[in-house]
Amino acid sequence: MEVTRTGADVLFVLLGAIMVLAMHAGFAFLEVGTVRKKNQVNALVKILTDFAVSTLVYFFVGYGVAYGISFLHPAADLVGKTEGSAFAANGYDLVKFFFLATFAAAIPAIISGGIAERAKFWPQLIATSILVGLVYPITEGMVWGTRLGFQETITALFGVPFHDFAGSVVVHALGGWVALGAVLMLGARRGRYRKDGRVIAIPPSNIPFLALGSWVLCVGWFGFNVMSAQAIDGISGLVAMNSLLAMVGGIISSLIVGRNDPGFVHNGALAGLVAVCAGSDVMHPVGALVTGGLAGALFVWAFEMCQDKWKIDDVLGVWSLHGLCGAMGGIACGIFGLETLGGLGGVHPGAQFVGTLTGVVLGLASGLAVYGSLRATMGIRLSDEDEFMGADLAIHQIGAYPEDATSVHDDGALAARASARGMGAA
Amino acid sequence: MEVTRTGADVLFVLLGAIMVLAMHAGFAFLEVGTVRKKNQVNALVKILTDFAVSTLVYFFVGYGVAYGISFLHPAADLVGKTEGSAFAANGYDLVKFFFLATFAAAIPAIISGGIAERAKFWPQLIATSILVGLVYPITEGMVWGTRLGFQETITALFGVPFHDFAGSVVVHALGGWVALGAVLMLGARRGRYRKDGRVIAIPPSNIPFLALGSWVLCVGWFGFNVMSAQAIDGISGLVAMNSLLAMVGGIISSLIVGRNDPGFVHNGALAGLVAVCAGSDVMHPVGALVTGGLAGALFVWAFEMCQDKWKIDDVLGVWSLHGLCGAMGGIACGIFGLETLGGLGGVHPGAQFVGTLTGVVLGLASGLAVYGSLRATMGIRLSDEDEFMGADLAIHQIGAYPEDATSVHDDGALAARASARGMGAA
Amino acid sequence: MEVTRTGADVLFVLLGAIMVLAMHAGFAFLEVGTVRKKNQVNALVKILTDFAVSTLVYFFVGYGVAYGISFLHPAADLVGKTEGSAFAANGYDLVKFFFLATFAAAIPAIISGGIAERAKFWPQLIATSILVGLVYPITEGMVWGTRLGFQETITALFGVPFHDFAGSVVVHALGGWVALGAVLMLGARRGRYRKDGRVIAIPPSNIPFLALGSWVLCVGWFGFNVMSAQAIDGISGLVAMNSLLAMVGGIISSLIVGRNDPGFVHNGALAGLVAVCAGSDVMHPVGALVTGGLAGALFVWAFEMCQDKWKIDDVLGVWSLHGLCGAMGGIACGIFGLETLGGLGGVHPGAQFVGTLTGVVLGLASGLAVYGSLRATMGIRLSDEDEFMGADLAIHQIGAYPEDATSVHDDGALAARASARGMGAA
Questions:
Q1: Any transmembrane segments, and where (chains A, B, C) (predicted)?
Q2: Partner-chain contact A245 C90, CB within 8 Å
Q3: Across the interface, do C25 and A262 touch by the CB < 8 Å criterion?
């Protein structure tokens, strides 16, 4: 903050923030397409509301926890116009907040896909507040800031700090492992796993919406990764190239391992992108391609194991996608980032292992603790009746396609309820 | 235009223009999701066509009305390559036109949502031509240019000009109040308000499309607001931060006041953004949060009053959203922009009140005059039969889901009509 | 590559690459909306997979064919950090690759819309590999590079090189004429043209998705065109203005000629944009408007002739759109770019004609050769049974709306198949 920032820096970080903001629409549609129609509205409202609550909590609490900065100064200070202001010109610090807030809000957006179709609404907002107000900022402050002397310790041990350029671990693994804890606390959807051991398929509702979500996430990801440099002089075409090739690797491996399944191939692109975040600034493009390819295959394998063998009902496979591929990316950065493998160097496999493990443990422990406490106190799960009816009518009093509900006669009861209030009553 | 503009300025304004262009897709899907299926095609074609006609009229007429500039010079002039050209290098003036043209086209896009489901197509294009050729440019020229000595007068009265950084009043209030005039001239949809006083709910068709529209608008809005600085040196992270927090405020208040309704919460985000446009460059972030929160609540309240009590059949609630929240934002700028409330100052509540009132009066008067004249001459409303059949088949000879129409047997007549021509006949 | 590139250049080209990447989502949804529901999944997977394979082949082969550059150097070289590296700082060359890779991948994306609903999956990926590894790079290398002395010859003949600023010919005409060859080799969809001469309409499934695709393409196109300058100092507001007005011209003419049909008007916008690519940097805005207007009308006329008279079953009309309008744009650049018509000059009608013809011939010949060879060897067409069932179930074992398939009882067989594996089995 002591350096003078130019308008170009502000624009650079702003564009990243806008692109990651757009990614939240991607999270929303990925979930809309994957869940059943009776839970689509809930998916949309959850993502938008989680984003709003996250931003608010991060503004008033989380950002201070991570970096010790408060924005409760006069506006003239915030834009560096007053003598001795700690803030840079043109409001650079404010767009940096915007950028990082969109990262913070990814934590509940990731979890949302795991707990879909049976979680209560308000307890989830409380979980979001705790996670974005404390858990994520502490992790972020450790890795990207100076909190708890974490990077000092890692550097003392391995000669280099833990490298997580764009958050394979800080954002994705953390979010994915918190989600695993949440899913374990919540239990599977009604009827998903029968007592006789049979696994009942719950098919997605809408592949085009799923694909739309994936596309929005893919495109926005280039802001997530490239703008993590946070200054235009630090921009690196290598980050863009590596993100591109990791995405490509994820698509191709998930296409093959996932036998042409549209859900797998559209999530496979994301798996590659999750895995490349950490090392996108140091890997060789071919290393990024391999990393993405491994991630795509890992996602498909883990998703199928979760759903069919381990009976972990992680609806969108967010633990497989963000949790496992994120952790894999944290470690891959320590391998494909090495100069001997064509990378730029400055990374150490041991530092990456310890850093990644830290993120995984923090995530899982927080997930179990936060959702366990909420379960013990206010409950986190819809009643069986509400789950059967769907989160849309149970929580939002309207379905995703209200006109269809009113025009089909034998859905009269639902329609009457749906049209009783809200914009559906217009 | 006398200063030399750099490539960075051109890029900056261009990015804003592209983002606001994208917002028109958002307007389209917000309307597609809110209207009934039989009017979805019409919503899409209206927005795209209104955009095209607006741009054309603004290019040949409106821009000259607002700023006295014509583009009917050789291309070498336009890019500042000829001696004595009045145009800056790199075609800066051309991207500025592009940026402002996307604002101008927002006027019919706003109105479109109010008059949905029963307006004729061609008269609306005539209204668009008058509004974008004259009404909007005069307003814009008064506030952002030097037309009619408006800002001179305001400054003489209050010491400072009327402040409307990104158009809470010039764009949103103007458009929203024109829309109110149009809706009053047009009358409610058939069957909406029964003679016995009963109000019949007409439910939206597709919440995911409504949400998609809202997301596209939200994301593009950062171009609408930040790029209103029109030069990269003037970029302000404060504008981005304030837009973010106003959006967040709108989401949270509409969630609560609107009791979790997906239509309210996705429009609530927009309400916050509408209200923050005017003062986003001078308010404190907490002021922006409060402004957005008030706007979200105001939208929900006004929407319900319009629909249920006042029986104003403004389908998407565009008067509530753009008209009222825009006006509220014009005034809020004069309060939360004050230095005593942490703002940057340079604004005056009186100037904001007079400026806002001017926009409101201009809008409502123009709306009544333009749509009243068209009603008296060529008619602005579909026949009852066409309205019942839907604007899609009546105007475009095809529905939104032609394959479904042809496969359902008892829809044979519609299908035959739908497949008689156009790309549906392919 | 000998000049030092700034971060601003890297950002500039990166933004173009991101926008053209997004256009591929547009290609996907344009096809999803136009084909029948039973082929929507296939449309989505094809576009994503074609993009991945294209990028991979272009990375390892195509880029070298076009420009003689390989990226198989250590990362430190690629970002210009090593002594004597041939690569510019900040990884400029890597984002340039990214930008051009998204162009290369447009070739199979264009073809995809022509061969929709009856083509095999894997042979198409082989065609993609040949086209993006050899055919496109050779064309690109001739026009934008120094391959085969093409531009030298044109310049010797006409005094100026063939001008194709953003690829009306190199990308669109080439892709469109390859697609014509592919469509001719593939034959019409089953039941499209009856033996008795009757033409059976196959209506599109989803106009909102078609419109969404068009909007994404329109918005991304400004990256396609403006960022073709490849350096921020070369940015030209004229390119943006001309793209805007050509789009507007295409919308308005297709609205009128296409009698308000939503498919025509949303494709008409694209027709204008295809045609303006070549000359967007040299035409006068009014010339661009006329060019776009002609293209919109040409598209509607050619689409109807193809479908009804010539019985060429080009599903999305990609030959009409990209092939014909692209060629028209190549020639229009030589007319409306002339100084006597207000343009910037430096173009020659003869050079444009020869260059355009070269692209057309290369495209059609390659299309016939590649798809003819594949047809003769492995076959390029689905079995009648698979085509009837739809490419989704035949190739991907899942439909676009799996939940609906399982809930409708008489679709039980499909549902059982759909839910047997993949994410649909979740």
A1: 12-30, 51-74, 94-113, 125-145, 165-188, 209-229, 235-257, 264-280, 286-303, 315-338, 350-371
A2: no
A3: no
Q: What HEC string does C390-411 produce?
A: CHHHHHHCCCCCHHHHHHCHHH
Burial of A70 (0-12, 13-18, 19+ CB in 10 A): exposed
Q: What tokens appear for A298 in the block?
A: 């890992």
Pick the CATH number of C7-377 from 1.10.10.10, 1.10.3430.10, 3.40.50.300, 3.30.565.10: 1.10.3430.10
The per-residue b/e assignment along A265-274, b for 16 or more CB within 10 angstroms, e otherwise, is bbbbbbbbbb
DSSP calls for B347-367:
--HHHHHHHHHHHHHHHHHHH
CA–CA gap between residue A397 and residue A410 (Å, rounded): 18
- Which chain A residues are within 8 Å of C8, Cβ to Cβ? 8, 232
3-state secondary structure of C119: strand
At residue C421 the predicted structure's pLDDT band, cuts being 50, 70 and 90, is low
- Per-residue DSSP letters for C244-268? HHHHHHHHHHHHHHTTT-HHHHHHH
For residue B290, give both structure tokens: 């409060």
- Within 8 A of A36 by CB-CB distance, chain B residues are none
Decide: A169 and A326 in contact? Cβ < 8 Å.
Answer: yes
pLDDT, tens digit, for every residue of B203-234? Answer: 999 999 999 999 999 999 999 999 999 999 99
Radius of gyration of chain A, Cα coordinates, nearest whole angstrom: 22
Q: Do C235 and B52 touch (CB under 8 A)?
A: no
pLDDT band at B408 (very low <50, low <70, confident <90, very high): very low
In this complex, how many residue pairs, one in chain B and one in chain C, have their CB atoms less than 8 Å apart? 212
Residue ranges of chain C that CATH labels 1.10.3430.10: 7-377
User: How far, CA to CA in Å, does A275 sit from each of A246, A393, B199, C14?
Assistant: 8, 37, 54, 21
The upper half-sphere exposure of residue B416, i.e. CA atoms within 13 Å in the direction of its Cβ, equals: 5
Q: What is the pTM of this model?
A: 0.97
Q: Quote the ipTM score.
A: 0.96
DSSP symbol at A264:
H
Q: In whole angstroms, give the CA distance from residue A168 to residue A37.
A: 31
pLDDT for A4? 53
Q: Do A59 and B260 touch (CB under 8 A)?
A: no
